[in-house]
């Protein structure tokens, strides 16, 4: 009778261990998309980045990355993962979020093809970009270079926090044809020289603010058609 329970208990323990191992493989802080029932999901609405991190210096960073959570649902092998920039850049001056940059600050995101999406306080230029290509198991882990620049387009930015909004799409390789429903919009808030407590205050204020977003996100498909002919895709991380 006792032996009848051993196998199920061992199986349960193995299952729990595998689940824990799968969770441990995900990188904390990364944007972790997955696909279920034809819909893309992400693991949160708000993500934090720091232009003062060691790898990027004062004005660059490549975090957060994009680390698919295949335990929750894999993407199509060989397909491409895209981001699309939405809305406009918002700037924290220490007390409020506004659409005014003190020195013409803007944020650039370089995609896997070498194209640059620019977020300004008036909108997004060259909005869609390729994050990377899914592997044979529908997995991906990529980091894109991001930088803050001033009005003269030199690396630099006033002390404060900066907020951009993105959405994820999946397409066939070398194509603009979507093969899943886009993710809901999510946000990245960048720290540029604030103390930890001051930055967390900015994030808290952003997450409590109403976020008006354009409704026609699927219009991104015609916009990305011209991007596929130039740029060079980086190898997978």
Low-confidence stretches: 1-24, 215-219, 230-237
Number of helices: 3
Computed over alpha carbons, the radius of gyration is 20 Å
Largest β sheet strand count, sense and barrel closure:
6 strands, mixed
Topology, number of strands: 15
What is the structural class? alpha+beta
What would you call the shape?
A: globular
Q: Bin the helical content.
A: 10-25%
In terms of DSSP E residues, the strand content is: 25-35%
Number of domains: 1
Intertermini distance: 51 Å
Mean pLDDT: 84
The helix/strand order is: HEEEEEEEEEEEEEEEHH
Description:
The protein is α+β, with helices and mostly antiparallel strands and 237 residues long. It has one domain (27-227). It is 17% helix and 32% strand. It contains three helices and 15 strands. It has helices at residues 3-25, 196-208, 220-224, and strands at residues 34-36, 39-41, 46-50, 60-61, 66-67, 80-92, 97-98, 106-110, 116-120, 123-125, 128-133, 141-142, 145-149, 160-171, 186-192. Strands 3, 6, 7, 11, 14 and 15 form a six-stranded mixed sheet that branches. A hairpin with a 4-residue loop joins strand 6 and strand 7 (97-98). The chain is globular. The model is unreliable at 1-24, 215-219 and 230-237 (pLDDT under 50).
